[in-house]
């Protein structure tokens, strides 16, 4: 009987969530929601879905895969950029604070405007580019296992923008500095042995703002939910440019 009583006892955790609706004539505010952790999944995304389903259907956030693959649910949780689907709920007594990704225009609640981020990604032309045509009968552009291994740690990026929005340089220069995520993707194509536009790609990045606003603060590598190292990729681009001059 004691076990039944113990299991039915509520385990309340409070979540302080940033709210803002552009259609309402109201300044942004923080709303507090209680969640019984005994009746909730282990991840912050589970708590957000529970709030939306049971307490406030107007709460707005992005989510899709729930497996850390799509990058949709990127947000700032307890002061750290991460994915809500990969972030376990802290069972401590303090309330969890959930905000949209920092220094981004907010569409609504926890939904940031990613337009500038995606436009910067488009600007690096992130697709395979060649100068020669395929030979007769050639179906694919092949590479050795060793060359393929050079792409490890870069192709896994899901463009969640956790790293870029944790970077102070990107906060102040997001109109001109490409940011860690985009620069790592640029290096991914620079390192690809099948791509034949390496020289042109490097020349495009050789700019005081696009690349050199990086001051190796390394917030990007600390917060990446996929445990990648954008800071290393940026340093590699700088090294290649230095050796090419």
β-strand percent reads 5-15%
Biggest sheet, open or closed, and with what strands and sense?
Answer: 5 strands, mixed
Estimate the global geometry from the Cα principal axes.
Answer: elongated
Oligomer: single chain
Q: What is the helix content?
A: 25-40%
Alpha plus pi helix count: 9
Query: Which value, in Å, is the CA radius of gyration?
Result: 22 Å
Alpha-beta classification: alpha+beta
Question: Uncertain runs with pLDDT below 50, 5 residues or more?
Answer: 1-6
Task: Strand order, main sheet: write it out.
Answer: 2-1-5-3-4
Along the chain, the helix and strand elements come as HEEHEEEEEHHHHHHH
* Number of beta strands: 7
Q: Average the pLDDT over all residues and give the rounded result.
A: 95
Distance between the termini: 77 Å
């Amino acid at each position: 009987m004691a076990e039944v009583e113990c299991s039915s006892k509520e385990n309340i955790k409070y979540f302080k969530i940033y709210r803002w609706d552009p259609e309402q004539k109201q300044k942004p505010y923080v709303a507090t929601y209680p969640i019984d952790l005994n009746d909730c999944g282990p991840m912050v995304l589970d708590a957000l879905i529970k709030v939306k389903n049971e307490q406030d259907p107007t709460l707005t956030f992005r989510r899709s895969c729930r497996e850390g693959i799509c990058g949709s649910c990127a947000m700032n949780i307890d002061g750290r950029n991460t994915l809500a689907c990969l972030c376990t709920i802290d069972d401590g007594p303090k309330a969890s604070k959930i905000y949209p990704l920092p220094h981004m225009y907010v569409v609504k609640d926890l939904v940031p405007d990613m337009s500038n981020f995606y436009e910067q990604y488009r600007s690096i032309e992130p697709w395979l580019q060649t100068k020669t045509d395929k030979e007769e009968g050639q179906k694919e552009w092949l590479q050795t296992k060793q060359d393929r291994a050079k792409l490890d740690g870069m192709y896994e990026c899901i463009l969640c923008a956790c790293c870029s929005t944790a970077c102070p340089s990107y906060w102040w220069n997001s109109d001109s500095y490409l940011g860690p995520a985009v620069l790592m993707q640029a290096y991914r194509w620079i390192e690809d042995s099948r791509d034949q536009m390496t020289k042109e790609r490097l020349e495009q990045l050789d700019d005081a703002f696009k690349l050199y606003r990086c001051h190796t603060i390394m917030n990007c590598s600390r917060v990446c939910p996929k445990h990648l190292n954008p800071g290393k990729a940026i340093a590699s681009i700088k090294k290649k440019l230095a050796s090419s001059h």
